[in-house]
Amino acid sequence: MDRAAYADNIAEVLSGAHGAKVGYPIGLCDVEVIRTEQVGAGLLRITFGGADLAGFHSYVPDEHVRLIFPDENGELRLPRKDGLSLEWGAPRPVSREYTVRRFSAEDRELDIDFVVHPGGLASDWAVNVQPGTRIHIAGPPGGEVVPRTYDRYLLAGDITALPAIARWLEWLPRESAGWAVIEVRGPEEEIPLGAPAGFEVHWVHRGDAAPGTGDTFEKTLRGLDVPAGQRLYVWLAGEAGVLKPLRKWVSTDLQVGPKDRLIAGYWKRGIADYDRDE
Description:
Elements: H1 3-14, E1 20-23, E2 28-39, E3 43-49, E4 62-69, E5 80-82, E6 85-87, E7 94-99, E8 102-104, E9 109-115, H2 121-128, E10 134-138, E11 142-145, E12 152-157, H3 162-171, E13 177-184, E14 198-205, H4 216-222, E15 232-239, H5 240-253, E16 261-267
Parallel strand pairs: 12-13, 12-15, 13-14, 15-16
Antiparallel strand pairs: 1-11, 2-3, 2-10, 3-9, 4-7, 4-10, 4-11, 5-6, 8-9
């Protein structure tokens, strides 16, 4: 199925009442680092390019790919194409999951924003990589497609969710309304956002507290004045432990059903390559 056919599938969900996951054919692209750019103090943007991106599928803000790295012995294992999917085999190739920040089919370019932190496999690679370096990228396996017809949207997360939130705010119609709540270390990690005029943007500064600790982010969310009786879509992402009490708040206090929310643990303190939960 070509890109136009998948765009038609997504258009069908967009015209409906609720969000839904739409699967894509899962590709494996051999790409080249084209350029790097610092985005605020906390993110490093890498632009990838290459002929393989001619078959890359990207349509909506919530999409993820996996970058594949050599193992500790320097051996690079790659998944194998299996129809419209990939067979990862055992031992599983070493990979890390990242959000698609921008994709241009015309230019065959893909942007990924990396959170800069010491000791992370992908972060250390991103900080040191030079243009011309090649790497394999798998996915995305699909995207969470959300109609643009909700009365309001609540988008919130820590800096790992910032690339997706930024893409969300650019993707939504200019008449959209809602809230974007983002936790960062301080003003130096804030970035310009293309938010519709009807959005309130709240930057939550954690200061010297370690990522994934403290309750300022949760208090900010609970303090929002969310009108009753409106159709609300909620998208939350970040550290799994921080999100745990917010799941009940979204379902019980905000009364948002499972078809109108996505809550994803992107990472968990002390665990490398945490398997995100939704």
